[in-house]
Amino acid sequence: MSDFSKRELARKVIDRTIKAPIEETNELLHRDGELKPGLGKISSVLALSLGFLCLLGVLAFHFPQYLTTPDLRHRYSVDVLRQLLLVALLVAGGMSLGNLILGRMRNLNVIAFGLVMMATAVGGSRVPVGNFPERTPYIGLDWFILDLLGSTLMFVVIEKLFPLYKGQAVFRKEWQTDLKHFAVNHFIVGLALLVVNFLLHHLFGWLVRSDFQQFVQHIYFVPQLLLCVLVADLAQYWTHRAYHEVPFLWRFHAVHHSVKTMDWLAGSRQHMLELIVTRVCVLAPLYILGFSEAVMNAYIIVVGFQAVFNHANVHLPWGPLKYVLVTPNFHHWHHASDDEAIDKNYAAHYAFLDYLFGTAVKSKNKFPEKYGVVGDYMPDGFIKQQMFPFRGSTSSTTEPPVQV
Q1: What tens digit of pLDDT does each residue of 94-121 get?
Q2: 226-262: string of b/e by CB count within 10 Å (b at 16+)?
Q3: Where are the alpha helices (DSSP H) in 127-220?
Q4: pTM of the model
Q5: Buried b / exposed e across 342-364, counting CB within 10 Å, b at 16+?
Q6: What is the biggest distance separating any 2 CA atoms in the chain, rounded to whole angstroms?
Q7: Distance between the two ends of the chain, CA-based, in angstroms?
Q8: How confident is the model at residue 357 (pLDDT cuts 50, 70, 90)?
């Protein structure tokens, strides 16, 4: 065989075994729309996603001091996490190998099976975890993995069982952008908490009174939790309202409002500076009042659930509760670009605050007709959206109006 023939054969092998799978995977990640069952697409996407998360999980086992969140790592059962990782590896490996045998989505499953093999080769679920230094800079890779898995399993199922818009695809338009927001917001959790804690202590530490905090902490758990949520929501309401009514602040908040399809991932679209400022404004009164640790932990669960659930593609019969609690139906109107919905429904937890302050939506329509910012001027893409508030206006069509 001539040298030319050998080079040509090597090129074909590389194209078939490496280049083609990578190109097909990249194409899939840039695609949107419904996954039709029976073609191997659903199982292939699941295998690819699980394989990638398994590899990230193994890396977190190798470098826990840099890739895990301190507040979470002390609550883990390492044995349980090992079992979950092993099951995920077996499921991802089994699905990808099965699809390869059946000849379905070959290139995609080559990548998925390769990720599983790579995760297994670098230790899999048997990576030893010994003692390691605690006070190190970190990114929340563990929080990203667990929250993505948990949110996907919980909210995708809820959306399919009780959809507001039937037939809406899981991989709807611009899902890639919102997944990037989701990932970055989780990865910078350490930096965000560091900045938030610094600002809280230095800006509001002088207001703390231990005797008053002791009084608050001796309130029974349930009323203390309800009070904590009310205080947080009052701060959230006025902070949120300021983002809508102050033109400079609106440029940051417009990023969140630019999402045009509502689902569990939509709430992740948020400018990083807004994320930090809002947390400071909401947590400041909670820090000053000194709610108990148990109540704060419960509040974090409540706000974490509602932040995702209220953006979800979900419709349920709420009855009179819709006037008390913020629901997906209530919050969807806040994201609507219908005329009657502009600058309405600011509350995050208690809907009655908007009725009290006169900012609740009043509409003859049952559901909004359209979502997004009026004028649809927000560019797609994570980086472009983070840069948007600092970009000078070049024409009247790119200038973001305050939604009043």
Answers
A1: 999 999 999 888 888 999 999 999 999 9
A2: eebbebbbbbbbebbbebbeeeebbbbbbbbbbbbbb
A3: 141-151, 157-161, 175-187, 189-204, 210-217
A4: 0.87
A5: eebbbbbbbbebbeeeebbbeee
A6: 88
A7: 75
A8: very high
